Amino acid sequence: MITISLCMIVKNEENVLERCLDSVLDIVDEINIIDTGSTDNTKVIARKYTNRLFDFKWVDDFSAARNESFKKATKDYILWMDADDVVSYKDRKKFLDIKQHLDNSVDVVSMNYNLAFDEYGNVVFSSRRNRLVKREKNFCWIGEVHEYLNVYGKIEASDISITHKSVYHDSDRNLSIYQKLLKEGKKFSPRDNYYFANELFDHKMYTKAAVIYEQFLLDNKGWVEDNISSCSKLADCYHELGYRDKELNSILRSFKYDYPRPEFCCRLGYYFLEKNNFNAAILWYKLAADPSKLVVNSGFSQPTFSTWLPHLQLCVCYYKIGNNKLAYLHNEVARQYRPNDKNILSNKEFFESILEK
């Protein structure tokens, strides 16, 4: 059985830290917490769980803090988490099984990271992160903001999920760091430009974000998934700015990097739906709803665009062209994914009354 060191960096996390640590107490053998300047009860809470609490002066560099936390680890493997992450009960059982049976030749274990949920608790966005890493490999974090763990060797993909449950997020922090780095003359990597554009987008600075996304894509040096994501965000920018032709071109641009992803198929479906070209909309929504026809190797998952959403939109399209039977059938498929959705239930009642007649 392997041993595990939990390594975390924290600052003013009194509202979530206890919840996080409670969820991994029976998994980890050591807890290392790096505090970067808390002024609330974070350190008081941390001391209830460990005496391995260390102070680290914040220098606007997440990698520096995370690398410091990794230096404190003494066990076979390192697990990293943020204070607003938790491991659910079912995933704890899976985690304990891996701890018991993981082959020592494995250097890295990747896990799902559930980041967003709908009102019914269903996961609507998730990614994969390299979560559990062998300490003796001395893997390092890279990047001041939106840092990543540079790993190599034997990597095992697990079905364990870490769940993100954010209570509060300093929305200006990352953007401020990027702006400071620019003033200092730092040359941004392609990855830096991508995440800088994301921060501009999140702050609704769509014109500036579009410029950076365009430059990022023109440089053609980014990870393919970031390229595809940039096409989506660029389409959002142009939509907000009212440039519909550029929005369409950005959607189509994503096909340069991979087969049509469900999210882009849905976007094209909506584009034609708005133009009352229902047959074209149906084509794209059907493609989105049948992901078995798509070859997708993505590190990200957005199940909304291949499950209930395209079927609900197909319901609308078929109703518009007078095919109530198919509209009803697609609404029923959507209802399988969202059985309590009021709009879907209202559609069900409406179509059943028509079809009975």
From TrEMBL:
The UniProt record lists the keyword Transferase: yes
SUPFAM superfamilies recorded: Nucleotide-diphospho-sugar transferases, TPR-like
Q: What is this protein called?
A: Glycosyltransferase family 2 protein
Q: Which Gene3D superfamilies does its entry note?
A: Spore Coat Polysaccharide Biosynthesis Protein SpsA, Chain A (3.90.550.10), Tetratricopeptide repeat domain (1.25.40.10)
An example Gene Ontology molecular-function term: transferase activity
Give the Glycosyltransferase 2-like domain ranges. 5-135
**CDD domains according to UniProt:** Beta4Glucosyltransferase
Print the keywords alphabetically: Transferase
Q: Does the keyword Transferase apply?
A: yes
Task: Read off the lineage from the record.
Answer: Bacteria, Bacillati, Bacillota, Clostridia, Eubacteriales
Residues in coiled coil: none
